[in-house]
Amino acid sequence: MAQVTPPPGRPRRSTINDVAREAGVAASTVSRAFTNPDRVNQVTRAHVLEVAERLGYAPSPTARALESGRSDTVALLVPDITNPYFSGTIKGAERAAAAAGVTLVLGDTQEHPPTEEKLVRRLGPAVDGFVLAASRMPDEALRRAAELNPVVLVNRASPGLACVVADFDTGTRQIVDHLASFGHTSFVFAGGPPESWSGSRRWVGLQAAAHERGMDVQRHGPYVPMLSSGAAAADAVLGAGATAVVCHNDMLAIGVLRRLGERGVAVPGDVSVVGFDDMFGSDFCTPPLTTLAERTEDAGARAVDTLLLQARQRSAEPGALVLPTQLRVRGSTGPARVG
Amino acid sequence: MAQVTPPPGRPRRSTINDVAREAGVAASTVSRAFTNPDRVNQVTRAHVLEVAERLGYAPSPTARALESGRSDTVALLVPDITNPYFSGTIKGAERAAAAAGVTLVLGDTQEHPPTEEKLVRRLGPAVDGFVLAASRMPDEALRRAAELNPVVLVNRASPGLACVVADFDTGTRQIVDHLASFGHTSFVFAGGPPESWSGSRRWVGLQAAAHERGMDVQRHGPYVPMLSSGAAAADAVLGAGATAVVCHNDMLAIGVLRRLGERGVAVPGDVSVVGFDDMFGSDFCTPPLTTLAERTEDAGARAVDTLLLQARQRSAEPGALVLPTQLRVRGSTGPARVG
DNA sequence: TTGAAAGCGCTAACAT
DNA sequence: ATGTTAGCGCTTTCAA
Hints:
Strand content of chain A: 15-25%
Distance between the termini of chain A: 99 Å
Oligomer: homodimer
Helix content of chain A: 40-55%
Largest interface: A-B, 51 and 49 residues
Number of domains of chain A: 3
Strand order of the largest sheet of chain A: 2-1-3-4-5-11
CATH architecture of the largest domain in chain A: 3-Layer(aba) Sandwich
């Protein structure tokens, strides 16, 4: 039996068997020493742990997952990782996952439903479930996905699926009340992508609240929610002679602020501007933006918690968790100009 | 043999065996149909794929990983997911990972070295390697980590490890030249955390460039790189009577801008302000910030590429990839005030 | 071209 | 309290 010369390079990771051999016990004992401390002699356990430490052994999550069918991993899919709006959701999800001892896998769907579906299919067998933030997948695809995996939606609702959503009904009413209190009798909504679930909820809420107040609303757009789209939106607002504009989100709103500034239009003197999201930067743009804040970090955390509940007990309670919003009043809104 | 009644709830995911049975072939044939198309009859293959599709079968990455020892997964650890500075790195890494057909696992170290080490240990057995962004781990811990896993650092260097770093030497010289061209003969550096590798590189570069130019530099701080620390930094700058301040990063710089604004100090009339990172928001704060942009998205992508190379071939080339920086001149810098 | 069988690292019966 | 064994889903020799 010629001894095989060990290959050069990175040392092989030691396995449970290496530890067992070295410690003079069975592999199952090593396993128990790690996962079921009470069912192994204290002395044995100490010895095993010592050997494991010496060998730099750490249990392989992969092997565990294969055996148990549970990976202690959850996937979070967002439309665009770079978009600061999702930072809060990601952070919250990461925090909740870490607290639960679970690994978070992050996926970027590139705002592209097929990419989203592909990711779900690819990652599905390896994770315990999905948190889908602002999913663009059609209801039917969501239903299929939820048949094979626990799924929790964030800021999107779909029949039979659990979700965490912002309370846009109350939030939009707050916005409208705020504008009304400044004497605005009408405003423009600069809308975002038509497929955006949040977007349509916002629009519905604004309309309802405006109607209650006897205010006039006009919808413009759709605009791609990017800084650069602000120019077109701002120009449309000026064209309409509006005294106030509520934008699909802060990204667009800041673009609008910028354009208005360039065109010498005073904010809020001539036009008041409101956004959604309280995104990073909304408090230090000029003027600071009045915006409806969502508790995105909470949303991410609660979504993961809900998901784990759903994954571990098989209690499929497809409830909707509605998180309060908060109107942050800053410098971009003021009294309606007269005339 | 009593037939076991299927349990209620989520349907079981079908396995390679289900497909094999249903298709009337061996499991190995199904396996080949997916991974080694040429080594199976075209007709058989078509049939197998059809059955697989019908059963909604997708190969389990977990089982594959266990067998092959490769998970096609890489981990990216960042100090703070929420920090917009890291968005670019994350995006780039995600893009490169997706392009390589690899899954990205994201971890937040909370700027806490022990958390970072714990994550490396926990994730190690399940991933093909680590990209550590702005790692705070001591060199010794990095060395140990790199023994068991391929590791690539971003904006951090450590003996024997591959890394992707920004060209701060050139970048800082650009900053200094820019200030000098405006007639500044001295400036203040508002420093960040002493453990920050980037921070010390920046300081070293600024000093060297200032020295070349015969300019005077003073270091203040350390300041925690948050908006709120800007107040203290700004006050220190005013106390020193400086005509220009270069800040550890944009977060701090924007905090400084804000404080200067509150105190009625004109920027750049009275004081010029420079940041690092060209973070999201740096172009729409007031005034827009002159800052040294790093190619963070590239850095993330190149780090992943390097990592995969290192993981797949065992060619351990611990080189440093130096990415160019670019000075973005905006409104926060101008001629030095006289007197 | 295909099938049978072994084994990746680990856990969970079951046996002792 | 500990060892033995089977098996998670897949890939990979090795035979046929």
